[in-house]
Amino acid sequence: MNLNKNKAKGSALTTFIGGIVILLVVLFLLVKLATSGYHSDVSDSTATATETRIMPVGSVTMGDGTPVGQRTGEQIFNKICIQCHAADSAVANSPKLGNSAEWAPRIAQGFNTLIQHAVNGFNAMPARGGASDLTDDEVARAIAFMANQSGADFTAPAVGSDTASAASDTAAETVAASPANEAGKAVFDKLCFACHAANSVIPFSPKLTNKADWAPRIKQGKETVFKHALEGYTGPDGGVMPAKGGGLTLSDDEVKAAVTYMVNESGGKF
């Protein structure tokens, strides 16, 4: 009888001790889990980690993150000019990067002339390559980058020297940021760009920022240009503008906003 009692006591004691051990293990694991993130954070108390923890919920960048006015010629070429001036571009009559024969007569005109042509537009070259947010100095850097790869030795404006250029563009930037202009740009980006983008190959359609293309149309007056865009128009050169650019679900106001955006980006003011 005593033997059975001792066995029972021993079994109970073993069970009790086992339970305590299991409880301690569970508590240890819970404490480690709860503090692991904290210790990792503390060990990462570098300047980068601190900035990450205190940074705002969101941050805003423009384009590739480089502020307007501070982009290099190579950055601008790779984002904008490459469409027409890449070595393997199929766009006719545009001098290709690295092609000395094509660039030679242009380089001979001088750096300032090339800048003027690129800023204002020349023949099939749209003003600022179709990127209206480029400053004069950024355009000059892009030209220097392309020309210097093709036999020139131009000195590009230093990055950081765009204060005057940026200030001269304030009015244009204000127009671009207006709600009405944003509405027109939205329609352009969704529909009109197919025919009116600066690098569009559709013939006879006036290209964005190309003042020579738009000048005779602007002279007709706002109401005439609106009427042609809303109702459709066939030009004397054979160009065909479908009613509402083919976007028949667009409201009249949306069409007018798109036309206004294109005109205002191309030397006019509607």
Structure in words:
With 270 residues, this protein is mainly α. Among the domains are: 97 residues, Cytochrome c-like domain (Cytochrome Bc1 Complex, Chain D, domain 2), CATH 1.10.760.10; 87 residues, Cytochrome Bc1 Complex, Chain D, domain 2 (Orthogonal Bundle), CATH 1.10.760. 59% of the residues lie in helices and 1% in strands. The chain has twelve helices and two strands; from the N terminus they run αααααααααααββα. It has a two-stranded antiparallel ribbon with strand order 1-2. Strand 1 and strand 2 form a beta hairpin. Helix 11 packs across helix 12. The longest helix has 42 residues. About 14% of the residues have low confidence.
Summarize the structure.
The protein is mainly α.
Q: What are the SSEs and their pairings?
A:
Elements lengths: L1 H42 L3 H8 L18 H13 L14 H8 L3 H10 L15 H13 L14 H6 L1 H8 L1 H18 L14 H9 L2 H10 L1 E2 L5 E2 L10 H13 L6
Antiparallel strand pairs: 1-2
What are the key terms here?
mainly alpha; 270 residues; 12 helices; Cytochrome Bc1 Complex, Chain D, domain 2; 2 strands
| Order of helix and strand elements from N to C terminus | HHHHHHHHHHHEEH
**Mean pLDDT over the full residue set:** 78
The oligomerization state is: single chain
The CATH superfamily of the domain at 73-169 is: Cytochrome c-like domain
Main β-sheet, in a few words?
2 strands, antiparallel
Kindly report the spatial arrangement of strands forming the biggest sheet.
Answer: 1-2
CATH architect. name of the domain at 73-169: Orthogonal Bundle
What amount of the residues lies in strands? Answer: under 5%
Helix content: 55-70%
Q: Please work out how many helical segments DSSP would assign.
A: 12
Can you count the beta strands?
A: 2
Question: Which residue ranges are poorly predicted, with pLDDT under 50 across at least 5 consecutive positions?
Answer: 33-62, 163-171
Q: Structural class of the helices, strands and pairings? A: mainly alpha
* CATH fold category name of the domain at 73-169: Cytochrome Bc1 Complex, Chain D, domain 2
CATH class of the domain at 73-169: Mainly Alpha
Which word captures the global form? Answer: flat
